[in-house]
Amino acid sequence: MELIFEKSVTGRRGVRAPQSDVPVKAEIPRQYRRAKDSKLPEVSELDAVRHFTTLSQRNFSVDTNFYPLGSCTMKYNPKFTESLARLPGFMDLHPLLPQLPHGEKLTQGALEVLYEMDQILCEITGMDAFTMQPLAGAHGELTGVMMMAAYHKSKGNKKKYIIIPDSAHGTNPASAAIAGYETISIPSNDQGGMDVDKLKEKLNDEVAGLMITCPSTLGIFNSEISEISEMVHAVDGIMYCDGANLNAVLGRCRPGDLGFDVMHINTHKTFTTTHGGGGPGAGPVGVTEKLLKFLPISRVMKRKSGAFYLDYNFADSIGYVASFYGNFALLLRAYAYILMLGKEGLIETSNHAVLNANYVMQRLKKYFLLRYDRICMHEAVFSAAWQAEKGVHATDIAKFLIDQGMHPPTVYFPLTVKESIMIEPTETESKQILDQFVDVMVQAAALAERHPETFKDLPKTTPITRPDEVKAARDLDTNYFLQRSIVAAGELNPLPSKI
Amino acid sequence: MEIVDHYLYTKEHEWVNFEDNIVTVGITDYAQSALGDITFIELPDADTEVEQFEEFVSVESVKAASDIYAPMSGRVVEVNHHLEAHPELLNKSCYTKGWIAKIEISEPEEKSNLMTAEEYGSFLETLEEKES
Amino acid sequence: MNPYIANTQNDVAEMLKTIGVKNIDGLFVDIRKDQRPRSFDLPAGKSEMEVVQHITRLAAKNAHDLTLFIGGGYYDHYIPAAVNALISRGEFYTAYTPYQPECAQGTLQALYEYQSSICTLTEMDVANASLYDGGTALYEAALMAIRVTGRHKILMDGGVSPIYRKILRSYTINLNIEFVETPVAHGQSDRAEINKLIDDKTAAVILQNPNFFGAIDDHSDIIATAHKFGALAIESVYPISLGILKTPGEMGADIVTGEGQSLGLPLNFGGPYLGFMATRKEFIRKMPGRIVGQTTDLNGRRCFVNTLQAREQHIRREKATSNICTNVSLCALQALIYMTLLGKEGLKELAQLNLDKAEFAKKNLEKIKGVHVKRSAPTFNEFTVYLPKDANAVVEAMVKKGFAAGFPLGRYYKGMENYLTIAVTEKRTQEEIVQFTKSLEEVLWN
Lengths: 499, 132, 446
What we know:
The complex is a heterotrimer. Chain A is of the alpha/beta class. Chain A contains 14 helices and 13 strands. Chain C is of the alpha/beta class. Chain C contains 14 helices and 17 strands.
């Protein structure tokens, strides 16, 4: 398909600029002006609408396809939360207004949303306070680890390491490293849980904390988590909960009750804010009393009068982690969703997420290797190991599913399961859809057995088939106006000073 | 997997060819096959001092990033700049045109930490057993 | 049952039977009794209508109808209707990260076009597929400069947004990084001070154009100095101003970041916004964030994929260039559609219109007794004025007249309690500007 730049025709306009209504024509001295115009495209409004509508049709999405992408929780996004986010009272609200003198009066409604979210999330998770500022899950992790560091500093603890299970999201070790810690990886045991003996070996006074996903990235709730918390606390370590999978246990358990000191929530997972083709996200972080004073500023507080205000006066705070108060429009969507579901609705959500995953697990386990054959939480981790023996890999099965109009599950994550296929149906899908999916997967298994060669050319129904990713990386082209973005590193000096 | 008889090897799948006090270093057939199509290599500057089994080169394929370790301590005297524009040589010709660097060695006795071709062959077999 | 769950009681019964457990509780046996919630005291569910009514009431408590003369890096620009119509397509906003390129070409091509648009706007070689926002993008740029140079000292111009500077400081407190801030001289970057402080340990000089006071600068000379010492130059920019202003590429900048809110994103009380980042081609592998590349499929057809993923956390884990997983894809799309609708002429005209209106406002405000418009440096659509009274009190009084009059600098700059920055976008009409001037005069002198 053509790029928008290739559709450009000199003289076309997508929007008419308003006529100036002021009797002034200002000029900027030449030294400060750009020499050449940009090469932004020139198209009519219809050209643009058709281009982007056509592009949208080249995507699979929850609104159009079953999307059981494990670990990503691609549940339905209710439409009313979208329209609420576009209320002018929120959409047109300038973020600096509450920083004006007595400016809190200008944003009482927005501050109430943030305050209420804090209260609700505390009750859902058993934490004592939340910050809404982190702009995504990984940003939340970093914020959490920074508070961990502040805690140890305040106590004069000399800590160097953060322990992370090998099945963790890659963001965990990356966040720990960026906050200045070294990481220690702990392998999983044969039940998919953390190897507690290995943990014992590694625990010592230099351990700052443990980062663990609960329920785990293998879709398993590890009952030993309470005991693990005690072990980590015994060396004055902080228990960090990656809350990516909170959607499995709403009303069933709370990280705060399990001994966690700090956690983040991915609102796009548990509270169905939009995934947007890869963001924006929101990653509120909750802490217990132990870490409360280190929360980022500002914090939203409530006066006796019932009015809300921003408080910047916390001497021990880790400071600013975001420009403002978080990704407000997403937090608002999550707030609306929680209010609508209420207590029973939230519990139902987890019930059906777990029911759907277990149903798919039972129905498929004859056809695909199930690494851990036990009741799962909201996602089921299979392996294409049996099919791989015939030369059909997880990625080939993924491409087969695409041709059947279904988005593939997550493949090759977690890294601890070879040829992994991680299925998360979510609670918003019905048994009928799951049955269709199971049928397609069974077909794939049968085909892999009899005609493994047929997978190579898949997918056939999409606008493109498999891309040449090696070429993409070797002959980098990331900017239309500079066709080949880079040559090998040696052809250019890395620093102007070395010339 | 191809193994060259007169080279020595490391557990991290580097090969070493000794010519007096200069060694030529590259990655083995096993390594290039495990990495898949290599798309990028970051080479050290000439004159860099390296220690045995310390990271000194990094390579990337589409879905993996990997470090290459110096098999012997010493000073890098030459690097194969040709690989920067043609990283595919690491796949196509890992034992000859895909050589990575030459090191002037400073601790000759470290040679005893390396494996012979035969030992490396047995080492690969134990790895394969673990896999299955 | 809530409307987002489709399984009926019959379905549930059949599914439980297949699984082989008696009831739903049987699925949660791994959670021990002593691990159950100590409390789960939440309100009962409501209907969609009730929630909409409640939240609409909250929206009405916000003073969103003030006429905005406040900027500070976040601007009240007009957003053409087509932007919202297109990003509201479910195929865009209910998709996820393009892990399967064959069924995500829409998102991938759009991100390639977005990267290209950012490149032509800033005149840089390569851009990433977006970061969270302008503030965090600047922090990522600082870390990138440290990776590129292997040095740990950062010079930061005092004209860089004080909010950004606070973010940089809180993120780097546990890392071995030395921050040195340089003052502002006559509105612009202080060359003498920068020359004095820069040395061969400096990883980067961070600059902003226009700066927080609204002043425009040409940083070419500072950037050349930085290069002389082997340091990088990081430039934070306001994208709309690039319709006419000298680009960071022309000045020789190494890393460019900015807040993309002005490119078709609503103010949204602080987010979601759009952090953009562009750099020179030789640094692409040190750049954080997702990058989309063009390639061909096995049949030779043009297509797009996530590329250079070996830099990222899901592969390199603790050695990744950044911990970032997500970008802000939908916001990048929004900016792309906005830039496309404007086109190269539209952007230029829009920038000129902002400039003209701000100049008109300056001329009006200068007529008020005791008000001095800072004219030591040229400005774009935001400028600094000196008021004969405390700016806080003035702003508070102006709210009563229906205006968010600007941002009082005293909040972040000691000794500038009487200074206010005022922003004037294309949305401000002549009538509003005249009324604003009249109101300010009343507040000051009546």
